[in-house]
Amino acid sequence: MALMHVDFFSDVLGMSMNMDVIIPQRTKGQIGMEGVSGGVRYKTMYLLHGMSDDHTIWQRRTSIERYVNRLGIAVVMPAAHLGFYTDTTYGMRYWTFVSQELPRICREFFPKMSDKREDTLAAGLSMGGYGAWKLGLRAGDTFGAAASLSGALDIVDDYKRNESREENMQQLFRGIFGSAKRLEGSDDDLFALAGRLADAKGKRPRLFAWCGREDFLYEGNVKVWEYVRKLGYDLSCSESAGDHQWKYWDEKIKDVLCWWLDIDAESVDGH
Fold first, then answer.
1. Other CB atoms within 10 Å distance of the CB of residue 271
2. What is the pLDDT of residue 38?
């Protein structure tokens, strides 16, 4: 694999941005690893970070490069700051950036990335899990699948919970979403998005989710899982012991890859 640190300018955000990108590379001489080519076009996973993190975090906390080195896929890990992958009320258009501008830029920089929706996955943890599902439910022409690990899927409940926390968290959520009343039922509410997409009979994403039972986001996850299952979505979800930390996400991202690519665990971690 090749790991690239990319600094680029976002016209949507009006500022310089960063992303780490893993690109397939055929190799034979690496100790303990053997890379494969991505073929004519390679599948791409957009891997999103959580609230306290940035574009480097998946590299620093997991073995994501080792997990994908024999799979022939690309991995895009963008910075998105504390914007909840949302066009905020204060004017920063993080949703437009991640759903439209970022895929276009990546495909210009890396022409071998496939532009097919079935070859494009959005995945993430916590805030990034919310962003990934929103990409699947709202940008289905680009993203054919979405995976959430410990995601903030019930964003309205998350907003209300943060209203009782310290003042800086209250101000953060108000600046991003406005009021809870404005958020509920909007295109930033996954319940509303899933319902509207089902009614419109639009392109539905394949969905994956995991959350630990001791996680503060667990109850919200279960509510959303039950709702999208009733709507008939193709959902693969699971729960197990665990709270909100990296030792679980490092393991579960392998499950995401197996699910998305329809491969066994040996293909991901057998090297």
1. 12
2. 66
Give the CA distances from residue 115 to residues 20, 44, 121, in Å, rounded to whole numbers and listed in that order: 19, 9, 11
From 87-96, 100-109, 168-177, 186-195, the region with the lowest mean pLDDT: 168-177
Give the integer Cα–Cα distance in Å for 26 and 116: 23
Question: Are residues 64 and 35 in contact, defined by beta-carbon separation less than 8 angstroms?
Answer: no
77: confidence class by pLDDT, cuts 50, 70, 90: very high
d(CA 45, CA 75): 5
Strand-pairing partners, residue 120, are 44
For residue 31, what are the CA distances in angstroms to 2, 55, 135, 264, 271?
A: 15, 27, 37, 23, 11
Question: Helix/strand/coil (H, E, C) string of 42-77?
Answer: ECEEEEECCCCCCCCHHHHHCCHHHHHCCCCCEEEE
Q: Is 241 helix (H, G, I), strand (E, B) or coil?
A: coil
pTM: 0.96
Which residues make Cβ contacts (< 8 Å) with residue 269, sequence separation at least 6?
Answer: 67, 254
CB 135 within 8 A of CB 197: no
As a whole-number percent, the residues of the chain with pLDDT over 90 amount to 86
Closest by CA to 147, choosing from 160, 135, 133, 161, is 133
Residue 18 makes CB contacts below 8 A (sequence gap 6+) with 5, 6, 7, 8, 54, 55, 78, 79
Measured in whole angstroms, the distance separating CA 162 from the mean position of its chain's CA atoms is: 22
- Rounded Cα distance between 136 and 157, Å, is 21
